[in-house]
């Protein structure tokens, strides 16, 4: 397992082929971030949902990336660590010029929790 997104998520498995990435993630319910977000009722912060997309994309492409533009971000359902111990991340991407166009979603128990559409660029 590889820890990502500030140790909130761990990558349990990942597949990458033809512009598509699928990862199975487990949630570290003991992460200290849940002490403040929110005490007694922990939920995964929205910023961490976006960060896990970037982390998995970087890992799969072997490049450091920077978010260039977020065209559409939707936080549809809360991810509660005690109820959602496994999350599926689906990313489709296409490289156009210097930009990586990305569509991603986080799914738990067949419920879409987060959707993202935007662009990243390689840095470094």
TrEMBL record:
ApeI dehydratase-like domain residues: 16-98
GO MF term set: lyase activity
Gene3D superfamilies: Hotdog Thioesterase
Superkingdom, taxonomy of origin: Bacteria
A Pfam family it matches: ApeI-like
SUPFAM superfamilies xref list: Thioesterase/thiol ester dehydrase-isomerase
Protein name: 3-hydroxyacyl-[acyl-carrier-protein] dehydratase
Native source organism of the sequence: Mucilaginibacter mallensis
């Amino acid at each position: 397992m590889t820890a990502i997104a500030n140790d909130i998520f761990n990558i349990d498995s990942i597949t990458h082929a033809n512009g598509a990435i699928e990862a199975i993630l487990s949630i570290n319910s003991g992460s200290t971030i849940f002490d403040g977000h929110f005490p007694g009722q922990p939920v995964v912060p929205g910023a961490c949902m976006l960060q896990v997309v970037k982390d998995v994309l970087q890992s799969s492409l072997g490049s450091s990336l920077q978010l260039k533009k977020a065209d559409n971000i939707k936080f549809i359902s809360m991810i509660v660590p005690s109820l959602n111990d496994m999350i599926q991340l689906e990313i489709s991407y296409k490289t156009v010029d210097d930009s990586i166009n990305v569509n991603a979603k986080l799914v738990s128990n067949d419920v879409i929790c987060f959707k993202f559409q935007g662009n990243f660029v390689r840095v470094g």
